[in-house]
Amino acid sequence: VFVLAATGSAIGLGNIWRFPYVAGENGGGAFVLVYLAFVASVGVPIMIAEVMLGRRGRRSPVNAILALAREEGLNPAWWWLGGLTVLAGFLVLSFYSVVAGWTFAYVIETASGTFEGATLEAVKREWNAIVSSPAAMLLWHTIFMTMTIVVVSRGVRDGLERAVRWLMPALFVLLLVLVGYAMGNGLFEEAVLYLFRPNFADLTALGVLTALGQAFFTLSLATGALMIYGSYLPASASIPRSALIVACADTAVALLAGLAIFPLVFAYGLEPQQRESLAFNTLTIAFGHMPGGQFFGTLFFVLLGVAAWTSAISMLEPATAWIIEHHHVSRSRAALAAGAAAWLLGIGSALSFNAWSGYRLWDKTFFGIVEFISTNIMLPLGGLLIAVFAGWRMSRRSSADELDIGDGALYGLWRLLVRIVAPVAVLLIFMDVLGVVPLTL
Ligand code: PFF
Questions:
Q1: 357 CA from centroid of ligand 1 (Å)
Q2: Whose CA is nearest to atom 11 of ligand 1?
Q3: 312 C-alpha vs ligand 1 centroid, how far in Å?
Q4: How far apart are the first and last CA of the chain?
Q5: Is the pTM of the predicted complex or chain greater than 0.85?
Q6: Which whole-number Å values give the CA distances from 407 to 393, 399, 411, 412, 415, in the listed order?
């Protein structure tokens, strides 16, 4: 059950929309390899740590960390770590809702046949038409956020699991259909080489940081989401096993999305660097030309929207749980307050593609800044602190007891990864980007 909820959280726009675009922006192969290495060596151990903290703390992230700090006789100021994760999840939610809104707009357009036989030009024009309308973007953003608030205010449990149970297999099958189409109609070999043949000269320090941020983003780490789902986890469930299943499923979906998208990118002469529009433009061309594309395309965007929904729910839950505990209000009020605040902030992201596209800082729009700060800075930083807390500050006895995998090689491996590998990796990457230690070009 936890596996279902956590998979619902992990699989979403991060896999199908974000992964291909950051991979394309950072040159492919080397980025993908580094990303996979981060998922395995940094992501999975931190995921285990975060779920473990949640289950042992049994409260919203802020109070869970506070309770654990007390139990271990540590400085109560560690509650800040809980606060950082809740804030990060909140910031991610604000722009995630805007992107999820695009999938809704694409449902309508695909269902009404806009993309039947569409050319590259037409598809690009349609993308611009969709994102350049402030009113439409705000409307979809509002609808998506409302849907998320409604579910969270009712308590997340049962509906979510039922949805994930049919959603994930359906999405998986549709992705396979898309990969099959890309094999027959795209430059598949070229795409495989692009994605899996590393050329490290393509990878910058910022690219490595982006790969790290993407590993955290796609696994829903350091946002409190897994801590809160962990707090609902029964003591009998195996945390390491669940984490591995979630990480494998999540990675499989991202790689399938890449294999569906890049063969068509090359076949149609699209540029891999077209950022936010990459997945939408490529997939709509595919749906516009495949038999039954109108049906499959509509279904695909509906499923993607639902996948985004199950992710967004997990982002709103930590802040909601914290407000309930802290202000002693009802669940629905707490969800409304947190969701409305994220909605307000998200307006800036919705307008970043139209009315406010000219307002830039470090050449980034409002959307770009919120995305960068939350994904590439706050998530790795929160992950680093979770690793330090679980690996160094929490007693060996507590973590061994909670993980319940004995004191053998498996536990030793986790402890090594969470104490040394994960923190050192994050620190080195931060220093590399700041130019303190030049590791990459
Ligand atoms: N993991 C989600 C995705 O890949 O789409 C995004 C996400 C969900 C990020 C939940 C953060 C979070 F707390």
A1: 25
A2: 220
A3: 7
A4: 44
A5: yes
A6: 18, 10, 6, 7, 10
What distance lies between CA 114 and its chain's CA centroid? Answer: 29
Report CA(44)–ligand 1 centroid distance (Å).
Answer: 15
Collect all residues with Cβ–Cβ distance below 8 Å to 150 and sequence separation of at least 6.
none
CA-nearest residue, atom 7 of ligand 1: 220
Residue 364 dihedral angles phi and psi, to the nearest 5°: -115, 145
- C-beta atoms surrounding 412 within 10 Å: 12
- Quick: pLDDT tens for 104-128: 999 999 999 999 999 999 999 999 9
Task: Give the distance (Å) from ligand 1 centre to CA of residue 9.
Answer: 6
Answer whether 374 contacts ligand 1 (Cβ < 6 A).
no
What does the buried/exposed string (b/e) look like for 263-283 if buried means 16 or more CB atoms within 10 Å of the residue's CB? bbbbbbebebebebbbbbbbb
Length of the chain: 441
DSSP string, 279-313: HHHHHHHHHHHSTTHHHHHHHHHHHHHHHHHHHHH
Residue with CA nearest ligand 1 atom 10: 220
Cβ atoms < 10 Å from Cβ of 237: 15
User: Tokens standing for 55?
Assistant: 């289950």
Mean pLDDT, range 74-100, rounded to an integer: 97
Asked if residue 10 has its Cβ within 6 Å of ligand 1, the reply is yes
Ligand 1 site, residue 311, Cβ cutoff 6 A = yes
What count of other Cβ atoms lies within 10 Å of the Cβ of residue 349? Answer: 26
Any atom of ligand 1 within 6 Å of the Cβ of 9: yes
Residue 156 pLDDT more than 70? no
Place of tokens 């579910």: 151
Find out whether the beta carbon of 12 lies less than 6 Å from any atom of ligand 1: yes
> Ligand 1 atom 12: the closest Cα is on which residue?
220
